[in-house]
Amino acid sequence: MPDLTEPTAAEMQVEKLLDMLRWMVVVCRTTNRKVEEQLGVSYGYLSRLFAGTIELKARHVFEICEVLGVAPAELFHVAFPLPPRTRILGKLREIAGLPAPQPSPSLEEIERLMREILRSSQEGDSTSG
Predict the structure, then answer these.
(1) Percent of the chain beyond pLDDT 70?
(2) d(Cα 122, Cα 57) in Å, to the nearest integer?
(3) What distance lies between CA 13 and its chain's CA centroid?
(4) What's the rounded Cα separation, in Å, for the pair 44 and 113?
(5) Res. 128: pLDDT tops 60
(6) What are the start-end ranges of the H helices in the chain?
(7) What's the whole-number mean pLDDT along residues 23-33?
(8) What is the pTM of this model?
(9) How far apart are the C-alpha atoms of 21 and 8, rounded to whole Å?
(10) Residue 57: its pLDDT value, please?
């Protein structure tokens, strides 16, 4: 009998995507409220979406990316890069002379990099003002 308390692979991928979306809001130096206003949704909607109490749908991802000025393909590439030499795409990439995708960074590495970006942008703001 399967353990229903353990998250499925799909649930873990959705959580990773939600983590990326939450960090994108921070990195883009905005707030959930500002994103909600631009999306035309109610106050607290994004918090509930990010918490998983509202089911994440593809349109949510695309709309949030549009508001933040991030290409959805880039978000998915960072969150879920294709391992090199898998499937036919690896061969097509090789034939086309395209570089192999890099391994997916861990969530901890992404958080560290985003903190560095925020810290450097805040330092830049304090020196330019």
Answers:
(1) 80
(2) 33
(3) 11
(4) 27
(5) no
(6) 9-27, 32-39, 45-51, 58-68, 72-79, 87-96, 107-128
(7) 91
(8) 0.63
(9) 20
(10) 93
| Neighbouring residues of 50: CB distance < 8 A, sequence distance ≥ 6 | 18, 21, 22, 32
Place of tokens 């990326």: 20
Q: How far is CA 23 from the centre of its chain?
A: 7
Environment class of 63 (CB within 10 Å of its CB; exposed 0-12, middle 13-18, buried 19+): middle
What's the rounded Cα separation, in Å, for the pair 42 and 77?
30
CB 32 within 8 A of CB 25: yes
Q: Which residues of 24-54 are buried (b: 16+ CB within 10 A; e: fewer)?
A: bbebeeeebeebbeeeebeeebbeebbeeee
Place of tokens 């991030």: 70
Q: How far apart are CA 23 and CA 111, in angstroms?
A: 8
- Which pLDDT band holds residue 82 (cuts at 50, 70, 90)? low
Per-chain mean pLDDT for the chain: 82
Residue 1: both structure tokens together: 């009998």
pLDDT (tens digit, 9 = 90+) per residue, 38-79? 999 999 999 999 998 999 999 999 999 999 999 888 888 888
